[in-house]
Structures
1.
Amino acid sequence: MIKLLLNPFERFAGAASLWIGLCFLIITCIVAYAGNIHLDGVLDLHISENTTWKITAIETLLNWWCMFLFIYIAGLLLSKSSIRIIDVFGTQAMARAPFLIATIGNLFLSGSRIDKYLNNRFLQRGEAVEITGGDIALFVVSMLLTLLALIWMVMWMYRAYCISCNVKGTKSILSFIAALLLAEISSKLLLSLLL
Amino acid sequence: MAVEKRMPQSCPSCDTKMKVKKLVCPNCATEVDGLFNFPVLSALSNEEQLFIIDFIKVGGSLKDMATNMKLSYPTIRNQLDDIIERVSSLQKLNDKK
């Protein structure tokens, strides 16, 4: 079970991982829409006020496709194995599953007193509100959950890359970091152009 | 409990690759003396040899192998690629000698 949580791609790849990944992406999309959460980058999520179905769907798809594209290019350049595009595409979709936890973590914050307090305090938006110890606890738990989910997702993305492209050692770590950075930058750029 | 013996591949004293010197027929005790090379595949680990046997049994289908072993296709393909790389390097090493 622990092995499955740390590296599910030894067991799931190809079409199976694509379907599992798509299910999680759709649920993440619904939660993000319900909580007014913007998924504006491969590793980003922010609470906002004006989210629509179209925006959350485009953000979800672009984040996944940007990561897939750079991982696939890295695989083509570095791997000696014959890579199947469905493995890279599917495993990168499934690797985004932990992001659902981060989105749920932020769902509790969306519209909460702490959200209003932070908006008023740092963005000078809305009315001033008083916060309690419970609000701070909610904020800390949500942030920890988000951080944990992000680390988990990056770990899955890396494992998915190693297995789907058969890349190992230092070159796998360096090329993954490069692909992740490029995907993050390009997703930000594309989303700012499209939305 | 029966102990599974493994054929030593290299000399325990100087690490040079070993050769087969004597073969014995277990039925009539006929002995053949000479200097024979190990087959390349015997230099692989037990797991790698079992993998090759399973691979042959499923007719070389990575998909069937992945289903039987309850592993994903790329995991099996990566294992096979690792064995291919190891066999290639062993063959190169043998060719040099």
2.
Amino acid sequence: MADTYHEVVVEGPTAMVKGFIAGYLVGRGLASGEIMFAGEQDIVGESLGERFSEWVGLHHYTHLIVPDRLFPELKRDFGKIEETLRLSIAKERLIKSASFAFRYRCYNRGHAEQLEELVQNIPEGIILTGYEVKERVDPTAEKVELYSPTHPYESTAHGTLHGDVRGIVAFHEKCEQHDLMDIERIAVHYVDGDD
Amino acid sequence: MGEELSLIWTLPFAGMLLSIGFGPLFAPHFWHHHFGKISFGWAALLAVPFVMVYGYEAVVDIVHIYALDYVPFVILVGSLFVVSGGILISGTLVGRPITNTLIILVGTALASWIGTTGASMLLIRPLLRANESRRYKIHTIVFFIFLVSNIGGALTPLGDPPLFLGFLHKVPFFWTLTNLFSPLLVASATLLVMYFAIDTFWYRKEPAEAKMAPRDPKPLRIAGKQNFILLGAILGGVLLSGYWKPTHIDLDYGALEVHDGELVILDPVEHHDEEHHGGEAEEHHGEGNTADHEFQAKDESGKPHGETKAEPTKNQDAEGEAETELSGMQVASVIPAQPLDSATAELELHGVEVPIQNIARDLILVTAAILSLLLTSKELRQANGFTWFPINEVAILFAGIFMTIVPALEILAAGKNGALAPLIANVQTPANYFWVTGVLSSFLDNAPTYLTFFNTALGRFYPGMSEGSAVPLLISEHNDFLLGIAMGAVFMGANTYIGNAPNFMVKSIAEEAGIKMPDFFSYIGKYSLPLLVPIFVLMTFLFLM
């Protein structure tokens, strides 16, 4: 069964947060990716207000994605180091799911098939919605054109992939490997419904 | 006429250039299917009222530009395309930074001799194959466009269409080599070093599998080598037209000959008879007339020296009878006071004189193309992706460009007395010419842009003077202006996808190979502005200030 996740917004210097989390995971014998940093995983994190606040140097925020099973202890431990490291949890929310939108455009039937296969063969726990493919074949298009270039074949598609945070992050990484895939940042959806 | 024409006559030209620039960008499918009709529409929009208002004068102008610019232009572009399309590079190349840099260097060096389109077509597929397993390769295609599809074509009139138009308008063949060599060297060396550094950076980031040597490498081979000889013939043909000034033309119906610095038109019948029947020539003197056969002599300024049928010469008596005998042949007419080295023979076509050497050049080029088609296998051409479509595109679109450019050239030739006087007044220095020609060449086709500013310079310095006289003066007195125009047209075509014809072709072929090329604005923002523009600024200071 997929984990549920919390988004934990930590106030304090990012380097300090990273150091603390690295030590925390090693100390508990956990894998380094168990707690994810939203920024590193291309997850939409900071709000506009937070970005402005950081920009003017008022506050520093780091968004962590923490599995539910680790969250209670992490929250407790942050309480313990608040005084010494000056790191504190500013906000935490339970995540329901994550998603990202994608689109692609290619001019070769072979590439179109590869891309279609990629988004159709999604792992369990991920759902594809709004997938639309448009193909355009122009028999008058030539292999070499100087002034009126057009492609003999063109495939465009777009859609959105939804699922649990871990699965979406992994699949986002996979899509990123494909040159022709345009992917947006991962959005997280909260249990309380306020995205 | 140029002094009378208002700017409204240049609108079809502007429309034509904007259609070519932005049609493929914003409506590629529509443009692909209808560019011929659009080109014809702009041409007709100009031609119909132009001929109605200016009558025969307009017809002569149109015939002039078609005979002296359009036909040779299409023949050169077409023959280079056919011949270079018969050369195929096959084998395994591995896309390491040094290999890629060498491919681009070879393409840059070749572009001046086989044209930027030919060099791009020849090398883009080997480059793509070499980089098939590479993840980071967009920059490679962009630098290929910069150097092979544009800057590399600067050294000869064969390299880039604007330079060939300059050649057709009496800029000497080797002017480009002597004047553009240093700018080319600075631009290409800087870009190649830059490319090598960037590609090395990205190569280090490539996953291990992208760096692995291919399992079954095939030796590098060049097929269709006979086409190199034909490329030599094309070069020879173009050189011939630049340096051969025929002063003696034998035809079935007559002959021209130079005696003591004078062009002598021999009686055609006598000449014919003299060759075949010796002394019987006397009986026919005075019957044939070379002028009736559309031959006349002309100086380099384009002005006829004498109408052979009407004007008595020093060798004719008062009754107009030609009686002088030279070398045993009957003289029909003698054109006096014509220096030996400037007398040329031409074919007249509706008031437009086409030099014999140009006809010879075009025949050589067409023959080279035909031989290439006969001597190269169809399979080889198929592997190169060769089709006739690009030649059709050039023929159709340039028919429109050359039709609509006529009033603009007339206005510019009138200099400060024409409707484009503000342009002439405001574009003042060689650096101005470089940047204005360059920026416009980035967004409009560079060949007509070159021709426009070439005429702007001529109109500015030598208004009303014929090209034959004005161009040598421009080169001797204001060479930097021509340099600025040529550099702008050739180098800045690389600034956008629409700056030069091969740019879009390379983009299109790369996209079909699965490379996600930057869109129009990203290409400018990410590559042209940061990489090319600083080089152009440097070149302004080095060569034009």
